[in-house]
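Loading example: each entry is read as four labelled lines plus one structure line.
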Amino acid sequence: MSNVLNRPDSVSPATRERVLNAITTLGFVRNESARQLRAGHSRTIGLVVLDIANPFFTDVARGVEEVANAQGLSVVLCNSDGRPAKEAAHLDALTEQRVRGVVLTPTADISPQVQALRQRGVPVVLLDRRAPGADQCAVAVDDVLGGRLAAGHLLDQGHRRIAFIGGTTGLPQLQERYQGVAAAVREGTGSDEALAVVTPDTLTVAGGREAAARILRLPAGQRPTAAVCANDLLAMGVLQEMVRQQVRVPDDFAIVGYDDIDYAAAAAVPLTSVRKPREELGRRAAELLLDEAAAEGHQHQQPVFEPVLVARESSTARHLSRSVAS
Amino acid sequence: MSNVLNRPDSVSPATRERVLNAITTLGFVRNESARQLRAGHSRTIGLVVLDIANPFFTDVARGVEEVANAQGLSVVLCNSDGRPAKEAAHLDALTEQRVRGVVLTPTADISPQVQALRQRGVPVVLLDRRAPGADQCAVAVDDVLGGRLAAGHLLDQGHRRIAFIGGTTGLPQLQERYQGVAAAVREGTGSDEALAVVTPDTLTVAGGREAAARILRLPAGQRPTAAVCANDLLAMGVLQEMVRQQVRVPDDFAIVGYDDIDYAAAAAVPLTSVRKPREELGRRAAELLLDEAAAEGHQHQQPVFEPVLVARESSTARHLSRSVAS
DNA sequence: CCTCCTCACTGAAACGATTCACAAGGTGCT
DNA sequence: AGCACCTTGTGAATCGTTTCAGTGAGGAGG
């Protein structure tokens, strides 16, 4: 019967038909566990993302799924919520499931589970994060450039006090975005004073509201006139709080987001954002993973995509008479 | 060893330690396939949603995952994209994986796979959809009421030509929303003429834009002054196209969405929407599923949640001098 | 007519965790 | 001392699929 299902050519048409009939009349369904046990691995790959509620990651997930399904593999989507403990638990579960490989957007540190997984021969592709070494695949975006683009744009608009919302110590992606912003601000203003860092609790809309409230509490002299946000959810939160407190965007405060999720363009004030090839990131990661899993002379690769600034209303002067950087 | 892992009390501390040491030094990881094969079922539930890119479903997924994880079960999230073929393929895969149960937001028709699954004794809970019979669990929202609320609100605002965007033939949820809208409009205006139905290709932002363009092509005399959209993505698309064509919202055209996703409140013009308890839907569905899977005297239930209208700017007069329904 | 080969099918072993019956050793009671 | 009982540990059977060696029938070629 195994032959009928897996190598129908090696079986005579008569037998094939007979077996197929029996299968349908008995309602037989192949047991995937037994197949996996025998094969030693499953027909599944794991995808662990930082925040399932962030549309950036669902777009990435679509890309991963598209490639995986085309190969007859299914994708187990796991949400770490940015918490190392949840990430570790998911990775353990995926290890027990003997997944073919894992696409991972890691939390701050690369957990020991990742090392363990790789030592077992399970490919792990890092997503939206540069690889620590050349012995591993990773699909990343040049976030230093992204930060530069965002800050450069605000400097071009005349802003001289800029906030970076997202913190400098957490995820490496954020550190790089910060470095890009800091470098651009330093070059543009000749000073480090021009940059303020705000670290919200979470990289969500609520975190953005909180950060905006904190900025508005600063004395007017120190208060930035614009912000680069580490992702679009933060940017939307900042925008919401600014609107709520009747700060005009972009006239009184300009905002640049990051990721360019679809909702950025639809926001109350359409958000300027740094666009990343979201689905392409997912597709490329899945392709590298499958190539590595096939194992025949796999070459590790670390493609880095270039982000693009998409300027919209949240950062560009609508009126000729503006008073930024005053 | 099985005892050490699963019933540590039945084993002496010395042996336990000895085994545990061996496990760590050898890097042993339990093989989930073998466990499942022996147990006859996996420690997994399936969740099949209509559109992973719709934040409504990711919120639902969080609810499902929360309950499942608390029971030590993991969730396989599958995306049917509203296509029966994809749904069927996912259900087949879940059957082969011997999942404990499936939470499903079905496409238009209940596929034969669902029947097959239930005949095998695998619980299936329908989500955001009423059950066809009493022999099955389903977690739904009173969409007729939701439609009434949305349309009633627009009638209250003085609108006398209203569009329903979403079609009348597809998903039963949409049919119910339409029925509620139609009933309210009939009662409010005494006529069936007051309601126009627009059926976009997809229930997405792009579909909304398309629908809005179609509405704007109508001659002014027949053109509705407001729309109830079958979900918030459509509503955001309608809003985008209206803004792009310089139709003022809500002054020239009012919009009501459905689901009240988080982005609705953050839209260019904050969207009036019909709120559903998104995470609660997911939690309840997962609870019913787990109860049915436990199998001891399970009573099928069909809870129906009541939606609430959340009025925002997209439908409420900002200026005293408005000219709707003229 | 015999040998050799191919083709289609059959049967048994293997994957690894769990479970259950059973053995061995020790304790407490009469 | 003898017996029952409890605790701890051991070994074999089991789940369902795949794989592979082996069997037999039939045909081609010498």
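Chain A has three domains: 1-30, 31-141+278-306, 143-276+309-315.
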